[in-house]
């Protein structure tokens, strides 16, 4: 039996930088396994859509697709939106099996990438994190799901424990805001503040964070990054060997 087709699903954005970053990541994904079939789809705002890509997979004669959400959190898109799209595609194509993999999440390798982005931003400013009383505002998208937001907050605590830097979580779309995080870091004695975006790609929300704190340095986003491509394939491998429920 041929290996399942990888369908990597990104959120989508009106900002062309986002799609360009995801496309560059997919180049790294394909380079890691040139013999494998890997396609990119978007949940919204960009083409091709998830449905279009799964239709193309089925029409090519493939009978199994492993769908990897390029998402850092498991909230509405991973738990409701994407499973519904997969169910609709398999209803259209009864011979097609669509297995949803886990989200990328707070994988330790991505936390390592985040640490590298922070270190690079420190170096660009000439900061010595051991002596310059730095504080990190770890900025994520945010969700309507309190459970998802608490999971991201745990990431901030893990990052602080790993790096030793005072770290406060904040969100671009909900509370606490970046301004809240800055105030908390100042209250903790941090003098040099850095915004660390927990985002795969730049876009409208990272611009919103820049506008909220234009005088602070902002580290680079996570992608594209070969380690990120490695995580994508790890999620694919795990799902390909077991039939995960669509609501995973």
Automatic annotation (TrEMBL):
Protein name, entry field: Sirohydrochlorin chelatase
GO molecular function, one term: metal ion binding
Signal sequence, start to end: none
Keyword terms of this UniProt record: Lyase, Metal-binding
